[in-house]
């Protein structure tokens, strides 16, 4: 079966992103869509959950104009959470997949974004795929980024360098399960000394994780890997501030009712590390990530 044959199925694809107040993330997802389009003859749109445009409803509308009768939506999120289990299903006209821990009674404040969902202009079938998860190719992307730092033997060596994987954190367990599984895979596949920390909502916090890591290791260098898809406020401002690194991104008021706890109380914890911190870029529009997306979409098409 030719997966790229429009006669096989009149399908449209939506890559769903969160959206960001900074332009960096939107650039990455635009690149992602363009790379994915080169691998598929099906019409492809990107839909932002909030903050940015086109919105999810606009993406659905754009595909409806192309006469598709089935839409495959894939959330480009590494781990499941409130956005993938509650927000995005509701925005696609579906039932939420889990109770919303923010509002267990299902009643949202009047100004909450879920009270302002646009109706969809589409009569066909919509299929929502799962998020990316701890895919072996995600591990390969992270490993490639770390390996690249060690290509110059005069820069670092394995013995005096530790690695910390940074994840966002969530009120639900899925984010913790994702990054812990990625950590396990990373340890199985490499000889690096590695740990993990969370930006917020989940323990251990970044400073606590680093301090615990240093108790049994005398590192001179620390490679920090933000396990995020795209750069945004978290990777450009929040995590650097926690690490006491300089950042040229100014504080921006989160006026879109994000629903996160951005207090970062653990910034007050003294981080007991005086060595060199090497802060890597997020995953970005890596070709291996595009391969994951294509594999997931192809699997749905041939069902």
Walkthrough of the structure:
- The chain has helices at 23-37, 56-64, 82-91, 136-149, 174-189, 206-215, 233-242, 287-301; strands spanning 11-17, 44-48, 70-75, 125-128, 161-167, 193-198, 221-226, 276-279.
- It is α/β, with parallel strands linked by helices.
- It folds into 2 domains: 11-78 and 81-129 and 287-301, Rossmann fold, CATH 3.40.50.1400; 136-279, 3-Layer(aba) Sandwich (Rossmann fold), CATH 3.40.50.
- The strands form 2 sheets. The protein has a 4-stranded parallel beta sheet with strand order 2-1-3-4, sandwiched between helices. Strands 6-5-7-8 form a 4-stranded parallel beta sheet, with helices on both faces.
- Mean pLDDT is 90; it is low at 1-8 and 252-265.
How is the secondary structure organized here?
Elements lengths: L10 E7 L5 H15 L6 E5 L7 H9 L5 E6 L6 H10 L33 E4 L7 H14 L11 E7 L6 H16 L3 E6 L7 H10 L5 E6 L6 H10 L33 E4 L7 H15 L2
Parallel strand pairs: 1-2, 1-3, 3-4, 5-6, 5-7, 7-8
Task: Note the main sheet.
Answer: 4 strands, parallel
**Alpha-carbon distance between the two ends:** 11 Å
The CATH architecture of the largest domain is 3-Layer(aba) Sandwich
Uncertain stretches of 5 or more adjacent residues: 1-8, 252-265
Radius of gyration: 20 Å
Strand content: 5-15%
What is the domain total for the residues? 2
* Helix-residue proportion: 25-40%
How many beta-strand segments? 8
* Helix-strand category: alpha/beta
Inertia-based shape: globular
Q: Quickly count the helices.
A: 8
User: What integer is the average pLDDT?
Assistant: 90
User: Per CATH, what is the topology of the largest domain?
Assistant: Rossmann fold
Question: Strand order, biggest sheet?
Answer: 2-1-3-4
Give the CATH class of the largest domain.
Alpha Beta
Order of helices and strands: EHEHEHEHEHEHEHEH
